[in-house]
Design a protein that fits this description.
The complex is a heterodimer of chains A (505) and B (180).
Chain A (H helix, E strand, L loop, with lengths): L1 E5 L2 E5 L5 H7 L23 E4 L6 E2 L10 E3 L3 H17 L15 H8 L16 E2 L5 E4 L8 H10 L4 E4 L6 E4 L15 H5 L5 E3 L12 E6 L8 E7 L2 E7 L12 H4 L14 E4 L2 E4 L2 H11 L4 E6 L4 H13 L4 E4 L4 E4 L1 H11 L6 E4 L8 E4 L5 H7 L12 E7 L5 H7 L4 E6 L4 H5 L2 E4 L8 E4 L5 E4 L12 H12 L7 H5 L1
Parallel strand pairs in A: 1-5, 16-17, 16-21, 21-22, 22-23
Antiparallel strand pairs in A: 1-2, 3-4, 3-5, 6-7, 7-10, 8-9, 11-12, 12-13, 14-15, 14-23, 18-20, 19-20, 24-25
Helix pairs in contact in A: 7-13, 8-13
Chain B lengths: L4 E6 L5 H7 L4 H8 L1 E2 L15 E7 L2 E3 H13 E7 L1 H5 L11 H11 L18 E5 L9 E3 L6 H12 L15
Parallel strand pairs in B: 1-2, 1-3, 3-5, 5-7
Antiparallel strand pairs in B: 4-6
Helix pairs in contact in B: 2-6
Classes of the chains: A alpha+beta (505), B alpha/beta (180).
Bound molecules: iron/sulfur cluster (4 copies).
Chain lengths: 505, 180
Amino acid sequence: MIRLQIDGQTVEVAEGTTVLQAAKQAGVHIPVLCDHPALTSFGSCRLCLVEVEGARTLQPSCTMPVSQNMVIRSKTPAVEATRKFILELIFSERNHFCPFCQLSGGDCELQNAALEHGMTHWPMQPNWNDFPVDASNTFLLLDHNRCILCRRCARACSELVGMDTLGFAERGSATMLTADLGEQWGMSTCISCGTCEQVCPTGAMVNRFSAYQGHKSQAEAVPTVCVGCGVGCQTVVYVRDNRVIRIDGDFDAELNAGVLCREGRFEALLEKGDRVSQPMVRKDGKLVPCSWDEALSAAAAGLKDQPAAWASLRLPAEALATMKALCDAVNAPVAMIEAGVTGPIPPKLGMKVEDKLGSKDGVLSTSEWRGSFTEVYNVHAGANFKAAQAYGLTKEINANGKKSALVALADEIPSEALLDAVKPVGKLVVLASYKSMLTELAEVVLPVATWMEQSGHYVSLTGTVQEGRQLVKPVETVRSSEAALAGLVEKMGCSVKADWQAVLA
Amino acid sequence: MSKPKVASDWLAGCAGCHMSLLDMDERIIQLAEMVDIRSTPITDLKEPDEEGVDVGVLEGGINNTTNEHVAKVMRKRCKILVAMGDCAVFGGVPAMRNLFTIEEALKRAYVETESTDSEGMIPQDEELCRPTKVRAVHEVVPVDIFLPGCPPSADQIFYVLSELAQGRIPEIKGDKLQWH
Ligand code: SF4
Ligand code: SF4
Ligand code: SF4
Ligand code: SF4
């Protein structure tokens, strides 16, 4: 152990700890811009300079390892003045007119640092150099005018994601962030995982899906789990006024450690069509709105006749267990709705999953990506594939001779294959969040929650049972799939007791 | 002792800072009791007294020769000059035009805008002031107190003016400091 003194406090830390980490352990706040706990220290912004007794000049605490009996001072007038000067230089470099910046007002680490240092103005005005904006990426915007060249993004892309898309061209004040040696970002090897944007301290990188929806700093941060595929990444979802405004990766997550993929970070926020907001039954050939009671009675009556069933793997374990128990009671085979392929998954994340599984295990594959030297991963398993397997759902069922069908589609869009499998069966009861080709065919449609409107558990491919939290409230006529299925159980008069945990244990 | 005199004016801004000043609601009466409000763009007297005022407040950046003149007059006639709002402090939104030449900006404004008819032309009258690069007030005259914000809140403005009225120099930090 190394013993040192920081601002008069004595701390003991392990060898190899940096001064910045030691300060954090001692509860001493040192401001940073380029440093990030999940990335290797780089020492480019110099905001974390401290006085080290005996050293000739101020030293960057983020890259300096502790040594025995070191004496550190982090708040002397010289340190404060230098930090302010560094901020002044950063502000004079490019364009930081905050009123028209998306991050201004709480979410920008640069602005926050300036306010923390009591900066009321810039003694040096900016250079008035015009920098380009790269708007070629479908999910992200890159405004070089706000970039402070801290390189967090490039380190994240290489260290956490494994794509190495981002880098830097030129030197000194001509330095520019580039994708693939000067390619347009949207045409580059970028897989739009958004990890770079999550770590960017300024408004240089903007998440198009969450821009101008409200600030992270003013939203509720809810830890939950992605239901985009079986990897089961842990997320932090920002919610404001019953709306999800953005999804971040959880840096504390053991498996994904801050990283997500395009599906989990961005596409999960897409509306997949018009919502089903009321229960409906078919009368004279047309679907008409009705009460839940009427819809459940019609569904129960319809399913008396030799049913077959399909369930989405985006359903929580609770709903899947209820579905299976109900189907067992009425002697209906249940198939998993095939999830399709999710990808590209960041190579480093894919590799971790493969390592844990010991092989690709029929659920992972790799493929080339836009001429990149790195192979990306693809996942061929839905979020609750493992739970569905444990409950005895099968990939395919023989629906020959079946006369009615129960499809718990939830917030999926039905594939051609599913439509082909269900069509010949006949009387169709669908639990769906969105109107689709399948709801068009149905006799009864029950409006159910999307992933963000319900809570429940998910079993990841690597076997972790994780809780998905309800993030927003649906309209009153929409129920969770679990509640809808429980209603159906009651109407059908079967005595089933579904214990989602028992089988998984 | 007579009440301290306060004068204000607006330059290249949107008037939002003065609107924010008015947004202090009934506290404006309290303020009027503490200070003698002289010239402002929203009252009849338009120029600070020649004998001088104690506090001068400027909103907006400096984007032409008239603004330069107004800022210089205010500086000369006040003891303490406050730059109020992001435009006065940094250049703010108007400063976006600094990324273009003045010719480009004028052409866009007077000739190219969608609402301009075929006669669109850049005003040339010699009586008119000359546009310049947009500058923060402190690039043209020395500023004593910087109150950033787009706009600064009524609370911040009240705090600054009431401190000055009581002969204290306001400390712009913590919840009194914002840039947006
Ligand atoms: S990146 Fe930060 S400092 Fe720069 S303009 Fe945006 S909010 Fe202001
Ligand atoms: S989105 Fe992901 S892959 Fe693309 S540049 Fe950022 S970190 Fe790299
Ligand atoms: S884009 Fe953001 S993270 Fe990347 S170097 Fe610029 S400021 Fe840093
Ligand atoms: S890898 Fe799967 S679980 Fe992770 S973010 Fe992507 S879709 Fe979600």
